[in-house]
C-alpha cells in the first residue's frame, strides 16, 4: 500500500470566479435596486417642491422673491459643488461608500424642515439636502452607467431619471395634499423620514459596488483614450470649454436646471396669483416632474436609436414653449398644458445629455466627467433661482418667466450649431 499522501484538493481558480458583466440583462437585479434607491433620492427633493414657498410666506412672512428663492440658491450651490467632488470620489474610493455617506447626510433634513424656528434653518436644511443629492444622485447615475455598458446607455439613463423625477412629482403631490388637509408643518415632512430611512438601509445592506464594471468596459475598449487618468483640472477644462460636445452638453444641462429652478421657485407664485388653491398648486407642481419622469422611459431608449443631438435641441425648444405658455395664460388647463410640455421637453434632454457623455468619455474617468457636468447642470438651480428672484422683484414674476423661456430657447440654438453627433456604439 502506498504511503504517499493524497494530493491536496484543488481550489477553484480565481480566473474561474464569476466577474462583472456588462449589460442591463446581466445586471437587472442590481440595476432595479438602484432604480428604487433613486426613487427615494428624488422623493427627498419632491417633498419641498409644492409647499416651501408657501411656508416662506405664511410662517416666516417673507415677501421678496429673492429672499424666498434663497433656499433653491443654497441647494443648487451645495449640490453643484458636491457633484464636482462626488464623481472623483467615486473613481478613487468606489461608488457605494459615496452613496451611503450621501444618505447619512440626508437623515436630518426632514426633521430640520419640520421644526425650523427661522428661515435660516430652512436654508441650512437645503445645504444638507444639496450635499446629499450631489452624492446620492450622482452615484446612482454613475452606477447605472457602469452596469449598462455601451449599448444601452440612453435606456439606462432614461430609467434612472424616470425613477428620480417621477418620485419628485409623486412626493410633491403627496406633500401638497397633506398640507392642504393637515397644515404646512410638520405632517408633510413625515414622508421625508421614511424616504431617508429606506434609502439608507437599501444602500448599506443590498447595493453592491460597480467600479469593477467600469474597469471591465475600459479593458474592452482600449482605443477610447490613454490609460493614464487626466488630472481633475484637465477633465474640468475639457468638459467645460475645450470639447465642443461636452461643453455644449454642460451649458444645456445648466440651462435645463436654470429653468427648473425658476419653475420650482416661481411657478407656485404664478399659480397662486391666478387664484389657484393650495391643492391645485400641488397638482400643477407634480405634473411637470411626473411627465418628465415617465417620458424618459421612452426618450432615453429613443436616443440609443436615433442619436443624441436632435433630441437635445428639440427638447430645449419644447421646454421654452411650455414655459412661454405658463407666462402667457392664466387658467388651470393652460398651466397644466404648459407643465406637460415642459416635462416632455425636459425628458427629451435629461437622459440624453448623460448618455452623450458616456459616448465620448473613457470609462476610467467617466465618473469624474459626469461630476463636472453635474456641477454645471446643478449650478443652474442657483443661477435660475437668483436670476428669477431678482427679475421678479424688479419687473414682476411673469417677466422673469419670459426671460427664462428665452434663455432656454437660445441654449437649444447653441447645441444646434456647436455640438456634433456623438458616435453611437
Automatic annotation (TrEMBL):
<feature type="transmembrane region" description="Helical">
    <location>
        <begin position="97"/>
        <end position="115"/>
    </location>
</feature>
<dbReference type="InterPro" id="IPR036259">
    <property type="entry name" value="MFS_trans_sf"/>
</dbReference>
<feature type="transmembrane region" description="Helical">
    <location>
        <begin position="401"/>
        <end position="419"/>
    </location>
</feature>
<dbReference type="GO" id="GO:0005886">
    <property type="term" value="C:plasma membrane"/>
</dbReference>
<dbReference type="InterPro" id="IPR020846">
    <property type="entry name" value="MFS_dom"/>
</dbReference>
<keyword id="KW-1003">Cell membrane</keyword>
<dbReference type="InterPro" id="IPR050171">
    <property type="entry name" value="MFS_Transporters"/>
</dbReference>
<keyword id="KW-0812">Transmembrane</keyword>
<feature type="transmembrane region" description="Helical">
    <location>
        <begin position="310"/>
        <end position="328"/>
    </location>
</feature>
<keyword id="KW-1133">Transmembrane helix</keyword>
<dbReference type="InterPro" id="IPR005829">
    <property type="entry name" value="Sugar_transporter_CS"/>
</dbReference>
<dbReference type="GO" id="GO:0022857">
    <property type="term" value="F:transmembrane transporter activity"/>
</dbReference>
<protein>
    <submittedName>
        <fullName>MFS transporter</fullName>
    </submittedName>
</protein>
<keyword id="KW-0813">Transport</keyword>
<feature type="domain" description="Major facilitator superfamily (MFS) profile">
    <location>
        <begin position="31"/>
        <end position="423"/>
    </location>
</feature>
<feature type="transmembrane region" description="Helical">
    <location>
        <begin position="189"/>
        <end position="207"/>
    </location>
</feature>
<feature type="transmembrane region" description="Helical">
    <location>
        <begin position="334"/>
        <end position="357"/>
    </location>
</feature>
<feature type="transmembrane region" description="Helical">
    <location>
        <begin position="162"/>
        <end position="183"/>
    </location>
</feature>
<dbReference type="InterPro" id="IPR011701">
    <property type="entry name" value="MFS"/>
</dbReference>
<feature type="transmembrane region" description="Helical">
    <location>
        <begin position="31"/>
        <end position="56"/>
    </location>
</feature>
<feature type="transmembrane region" description="Helical">
    <location>
        <begin position="62"/>
        <end position="85"/>
    </location>
</feature>
<keyword id="KW-0472">Membrane</keyword>
<feature type="transmembrane region" description="Helical">
    <location>
        <begin position="121"/>
        <end position="142"/>
    </location>
</feature>
<dbReference type="Pfam" id="PF07690">
    <property type="entry name" value="MFS_1"/>
</dbReference>
Amino acid at each position: 500500500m502506498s504511503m504517499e499522501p493524497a494530493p491536496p484538493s484543488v481550489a477553484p481558480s480565481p480566473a474561474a470566479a464569476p466577474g462583472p458583466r456588462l449589460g442591463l440583462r446581466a445586471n437587472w437585479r442590481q440595476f432595479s435596486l438602484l432604480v428604487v434607491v433613486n426613487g427615494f433620492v428624488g422623493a427627498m427633493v419632491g417633498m419641498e417642491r409644492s409647499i416651501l414657498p408657501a411656508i416662506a410666506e405664511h410662517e416666516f412672512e417673507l415677501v421678496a422673491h429673492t429672499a424666498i428663492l434663497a433656499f433653491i440658491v443654497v441647494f443648487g450651490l451645495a449640490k453643484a459643488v458636491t457633484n464636482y467632488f462626488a464623481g472623483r470620489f467615486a473613481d478613487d474610493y468606489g461608488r457605494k461608500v459615496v452613496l451611503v455617506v450621501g444618505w447619512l447626510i440626508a437623515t436630518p433634513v426632514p426633521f430640520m424642515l419640520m421644526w425650523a424656528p427661522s428661515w435660516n434653518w430652512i436654508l441650512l436644511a437645503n445645504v444638507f439636502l444639496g450635499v446629499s443629492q450631489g452624492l446620492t444622485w450622482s452615484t446612482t447615475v454613475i452606477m447605472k452607467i457602469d452596469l449598462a455598458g455601451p449599448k444601452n446607455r440612453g435606456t439606462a439613463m432614461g430609467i434612472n431619471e424616470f425613477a428620480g423625477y417621477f418620485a419628485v412629482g409623486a412626493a410633491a403631490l403627496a406633500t401638497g395634499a397633506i398640507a392642504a388637509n393637515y397644515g404646512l408643518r410638520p405632517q408633510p415632512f413625515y414622508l421625508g423620514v421614511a424616504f431617508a430611512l429606506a434609502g439608507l438601509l437599501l444602500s448599506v445592506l443590498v447595493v453592491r459596488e460597480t467600479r469593477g464594471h467600469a474597469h471591465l468596459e475600459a479593458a474592452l475598449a482600449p482605443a477610447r483614450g490613454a490609460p493614464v487618468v487626466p488630472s481633475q483640472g484637465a477633465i474640468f477644462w475639457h468638459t467645460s470649454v475645450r470639447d465642443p460636445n461636452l461643453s455644449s452638453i454642460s451649458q444645456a444641462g445648466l440651462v435645463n436646471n436654470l429653468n427648473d429652478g425658476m419653475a420650482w421657485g416661481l411657478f407656485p407664485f404664478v399659480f397662486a396669483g391666478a387664484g389657484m388653491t393650495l391643492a391645485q398648486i400641488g397638482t400643477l407642481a407634480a405634473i411637470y416632474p411626473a411627465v418628465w419622469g415617465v417620458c424618459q422611459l421612452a426618450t432615453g431608449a429613443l436616443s440609443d436609436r436615433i442619436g443624441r443631438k436632435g433630441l437635445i435641441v428639440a427638447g430645449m425648444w419644447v421646454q421654452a414653449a411650455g414655459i412661454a405658455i405658463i407666462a402667457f395664460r392664466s387658467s388651470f388647463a393652460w398651466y397644466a398644458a404648459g407643465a406637460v410640455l415642459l416635462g416632455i421637453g425636459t425628458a427629451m434632454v435629461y437622459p440624453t445629455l448623460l448618455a452623450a457623455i458616456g459616448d465620448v468619455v473613457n470609462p476610467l474617468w467617466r465618473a469624474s466627467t459626469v461630476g463636472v457636468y453635474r456641477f454645471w447642470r446643478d449650478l443652474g438651480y442657483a443661477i435660475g433661482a437668483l436670476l428669477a428672484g431678482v427679475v421678479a422683484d424688479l419687473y414682476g414674476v411673469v417677466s422673469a418667466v419670459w426671460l427664462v423661456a428665452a434663455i432656454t430657447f437660445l441654449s437649444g440654438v447653441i447645441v444646434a450649431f456647436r455640438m456634433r453627433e456623438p458616435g453611437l456604439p
